[in-house]
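Q: Hi! First time doing this. I have a protein sequence and I read that you can turn it into a structure. Is that right? Here it is:
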Amino acid sequence: MTWLVVGLGNPGPQYELTRHNVGQLVLDELAERRGETFKAHRANARVAETWLRPGAAKIVLAKPNSFMNVSGGPVAGLVRFYGIEPDHLVVVHDELDIPFDTIRLKVGGGHGGHNGVRDVAKALGTPEFARVRVGIGRPPGRRDAADWVLDPFSAADRKALPLVLSDAADAVEQLIDAGLVAAQQTHHAPRA
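A: Yes, that's right. Below is the predicted 3D structure, encoded as structure tokens:
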């Protein structure tokens, strides 16, 4: 049983630590936990093949090389290459409508205005895949959301970011290991 975990973002060092790339930062955390590095893949992505843990599910961690809004092509290519059904796909992405440092999980439903998720659903012909949504919050005041997501995290947010990335990585692992409901019960609960 193989799972494909995709972190959405934009390519290039200028986008690396921006809010829109939080999905790829979560994938970096998952790869680091396993001592894996990403390698080029013919589906226009970088992948790391690993295991959830010894004896458990195989996971393919993937970061598309395309820009966020055209993530569907690389994701569809990876789905075909690895023979993954949509119910074994997890897409990790930023979410404006969730406060910073909050993790939410769901399967299917709308794209909520997220162009990367929209393009993945279009390329796959279905929205029925799991999403780990990492909250980045709305921009302050009248600031444009398109500019906000491409800005680096603030100094205060950067301090909290390692914990956020760790929590999101935990959510991915629990989703694969124990299922959606168990992961939601853990990660949707208020923090003590």
